[in-house]
Amino acid sequence: MNPLDIALIGCGGIAQKGYLPALALTSAVRCLWLVDVQKRVAEELARRWRIPAVSDDYRAVLDRVEAVILAVPNHLHSPMTLDALARGKAVLCEKPLGRSASEVHTMATAAKQARVPLVAGMTFRQYPGLQAIHRAFPWEALGAIQEVRAGYGNPLDWPLCSPYLFDREKAGGGALLDQGVHAIDALLWVLSVEAATVMTYRDDGDSGVEAEASAHLTLRLPDGRGEVPCRLEVSRLRRLANRMEVVGERASLCMPLSSLGMPELRREGRMTPAVEPPVVPRTGPQCVAEQLNAFAQAVRGHEAACASGESQRPVLELIETCYRARQPLTFPWQAYVPWA
């Protein structure tokens, strides 16, 4: 397969820590252009990573490549995607694909009309442990499912190039949309969830964007396995357990939300591997490289293990429903003031 010639648009943290190291690990994708409004940044990175050309105008490079990677702030995802699709270019867009389900629907519809792939940058789908469980979920080993728990949180120490994440209009949301989108996509994908209902949702976003969020959901499992409660916790202030746990009547399945972690079954206090033979872990850049490989496969018309644009509609619909049902999240150290 000939290399897929792409332009990487946006030279911020995810480009520097994710896409550029990953591009060095794959021959399936070839980066011909780096694009950023801060052209000096693009030039410095191009020298370091041996990228042939740079520009500060993404429209000027669209006709010079086959596809684009969008690593730009959230409010630019939809308009830039639509511009690229209108030129017949395939798009790999960073998460969240859109700020709303409406944006995602518009983008996915445009991709269908242009007959080119639209892929969301959901790297959790490249985690070997989650892939193995998705391929062969251990329903029989678990028995009837009683509860699902998921938590994902890390202190926000990302090398930000702008403060857009703290602007709700530009970001679309806080921790739930920024970090929770990974956990929700993994949850719906790994368990093949047919529908999800929001029972309660709380966050601390009174002053703008939330840093802590907690939701109680009901998940409808596939193949008539019924509905089960799900607890979801997200934080951009604290490092949480960063795992999903499916509690069954016979055993529990623990799935780390990490490219290095392996899923395990817990029975009577003993932990055993949930997949045989054990899968080989991947580093973060290796996962991004696998996502690039899958993107190239999709553009070439082959079946590919990546998150389609349409797959993100239920994810964004669930997040939007949470925001509509929002109640304040209080903490034990906050005194109750009845007149406030």
Shape: globular
Give the N-to-C terminal Cα separation. Answer: 64 Å
Strand percentage, roughly? Answer: 25-35%
The CATH class label of the largest domain is Alpha Beta
CATH architecture of the largest domain: 2-Layer Sandwich
List unreliable stretches of 5+ residues.
none
- Strand tally: 16
Number of helices: 11
Query: Major beta sheet, specifics?
Result: 9 strands, mixed
CATH superfamily of the largest domain: Dihydrodipicolinate Reductase, domain 2
Strand order of the largest sheet: 14-13-12-11-7-10-9-8-16
**Mean pLDDT rating:** 95
Q: Could you say what the CATH topology of the largest domain is called? A: Dihydrodipicolinate Reductase, domain 2
Radius of gyration: 20 Å
Write the layout of secondary structure elements.
Elements: E1 4-9, H1 13-23, E2 29-35, H2 39-49, E3 53-55, E4 67-70, H3 77-86, E5 90-94, H4 101-114, E6 118-121, H5 128-135, H6 139-142, E7 145-153, H7 168-171, H8 175-178, H9 180-190, E8 195-203, E9 212-220, E10 227-235, E11 243-248, E12 252-256, E13 264-267, E14 270-273, H10 284-299, E15 307-308, H11 313-324, E16 326-328
Parallel strand pairs: 1-2, 1-4, 2-3, 4-5, 5-6, 7-10, 8-16
Antiparallel strand pairs: 6-15, 7-11, 8-9, 9-10, 11-12, 12-13, 13-14
Question: What this model shows, in words?
Answer:
The chain has 340 residues and is of the alpha/beta class. It is built from 11 helices and 16 strands. The strands form 2 sheets. The chain has a 9-stranded mixed β-sheet. Strands 3-2-1-4-5-6-15 form a 7-stranded mixed β-sheet, with helices on both faces. Helix 2 (39-49) links the parallel strand 2 and strand 3 (53-55).
